[in-house]
Amino acid sequence: xxxxxxCALLLSPFLCFSFVGVAFAQxxxxxxxxxxxxxxxxxxxxxxxxxxxxxxxxxxxxxxxYLSTNxxxxxxxxxxxxxxxxxxxxxxxxxxxxxEALQPILDKAVKxxxxxxxxxxxDPRPQEQRIHYLTYVGGDEYLTGLKLGQYVIxxxxxxxxxxxTKILCANHDATHQGLKARSRGMTEAMKKIGVPxxxxxxxxxxxxxxxxxxxxxxxxxDVNYIFCLGTLSVPWAYSVADEMGLKPKLSDKGLTIVGVxxxxxxxxxxx
Length: 271
Description:
Blueprint lengths: L1 H9 L19 E6 L9 H14 L3 E6 L6 H13 L4 E4 L4 H13 L4 E4 L16 E2 L3 H17 L9 E5 L5 H15 L5 E5 L4 H14 L5 E4 L5 H10 L12 E3 L5 H4 L4
Parallel strand pairs: 1-2, 1-3, 3-4, 4-5, 6-7, 6-8, 8-9
Helix pairs in contact: 3-4, 5-6, 7-8
């Protein structure tokens, strides 16, 4: 019964709500904790909030406590995870942001009898090496980058977008292995047409990220594509390209921005 309910929770991998430190009534049958890097200031948070409401209506005997921080860092993430484990929940759901850093913590939690499910980001290593979670719910981020790169090539061949000369992958989190996997996928796709790809760590602070991208683009004139590895950086890249006169508004020439995730934030530049 426990495993059935726990897996039901994770069938929608982002069933979450940003209420930190909430204590549930003693009569609740199960309490699951979702530890996440997505805080209330993230563009993805709205559909997380909606999902947790739907989940709790469907499974009234289970509660999902969502833990995150708006000041994300890997160390903050680990701190929150340790706090969650200390409350001895009936299960933990977590994105595997960094396999090496999280393995000793999560393997100990599993050994102590707390079921763990990975969501959003998996441990990409072979099963005998990876973290001992029950299962993974989510996509393959390497394939995200690969398929997106292949789509770019299709659009180029159809004459709808310019051919890339060089692509900048704008990475806002150097410790996030899912973002790095997206970058590797795009790099692999571009090898087929001989296009080089650079990964640039821009950080999650908007002003700093814009400054880093502007500095890079001013010395790399051959870059005509930016792949934003997360939705939050799309408007930053667009504003930088626009201010530098790189013509991101034109679909048939100028600088092309490629993004991940549909949200009001990522669609801002398109509008």
